[in-house]
């Protein structure tokens, strides 16, 4: 298979891996905004952490002046009764699973990158090695897709996510599995074409007709 195909796949998976690493460490997969009288509360949920920013305004009696108070706290999420895991046990288990799946997808992406390097440098194994690379990139994208589905489903079943919306981390996850899926499909098409000896994919290893 041509080196440039491996090169394109390498940078595509490196891109999805980077998005994966950044998104799993962000706390804005799901965002909930609440307003109670003059108080504003913004709660951001990450795969492993929950952060709450509060801004409260206390009007003083007798004049138009106010006293303002702000607070920002983060804690692990989900966590037992504090997040009603006794009632929403299924949600909490699924959310924890999503976090671990995303961590696993990071590892799979690293292995896929190493496989691409091997496939592009070890000439005797190039023709069939694309299947290993396609399998790894596909597995990486699938793990990201499952995480995407779990977070989307959570917004419908977890009562504290009422009136919530998706944040930047969720968008990164979406881009990651879409690019990963397209990369897998494209790489598999190129691999099949290379096995059939088509010059655009096989390069110098393309089958040459023998003239009589």
Written description of the protein model:
- By secondary structure, this protein is an alpha+beta fold.
- The protein has a domain at 3-28 and 80-201: Butyryl-CoA Dehydrogenase, subunit A, domain 3 (Up-down Bundle), CATH 1.20.140.
- The protein is built from five helices and five strands; from the N terminus they run H-E-E-E-E-H-H-E-H-H.
- It has helices spanning 3-24, 89-121, 126-157, 168-195, 199-202, and strands at residues 30-36, 39-45, 49-59, 66-76, 164-166.
- It has a five-stranded antiparallel sheet with strand order 4-3-2-1-5.
- A hairpin with a 6-residue loop joins strand 3 (49-59) and strand 4 (66-76).
- The radius of gyration is 24 Å and the shape is elongated.
- The model is unreliable at 207-212 (pLDDT under 50).
- Keywords: Membrane, Transmembrane, Transmembrane helix.
- The chain crosses the membrane at residues 5-24, 107-125, 132-151, 171-194.
């Amino acid at each position: 298979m041509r080196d440039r195909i491996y090169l394109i796949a390498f940078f595509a998976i490196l891109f999805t891996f980077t998005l994966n690493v950044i998104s799993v460490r962000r706390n804005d997969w799901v965002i909930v905004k609440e307003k109670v009288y003059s108080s504003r509360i913004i709660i951001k949920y990450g795969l492993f952490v929950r952060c709450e920013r509060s801004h409260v305004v206390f009007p003083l009696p007798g004049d138009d002046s106010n006293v303002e108070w702000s607070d920002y706290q983060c804690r692990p999420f989900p966590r037992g009764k504090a997040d009603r895991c006794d009632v929403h046990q299924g949600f909490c288990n699924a959310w924890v699973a999503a976090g671990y799946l995303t961590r696993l997808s990071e590892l799979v992406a690293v292995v896929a990158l190493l496989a691409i390097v091997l496939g592009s440098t070890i000439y005797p194994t190039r023709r069939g090695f694309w299947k290993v690379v396609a399998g790894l990139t596909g597995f990486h994208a699938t793990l990201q897709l499952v995480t995407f589905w779990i977070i989307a489903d959570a917004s419908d079943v977890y009562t504290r996510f009422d009136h919530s919306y998706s944040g930047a981390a969720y968008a990164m996850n979406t881009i990651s599995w879409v690019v990963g899926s397209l990369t897998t499909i494209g790489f598999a098409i190129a691999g099949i074409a290379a096995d059939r000896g088509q010059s655009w994919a096989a390069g110098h290893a393309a089958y040459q007709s023998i003239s009589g």
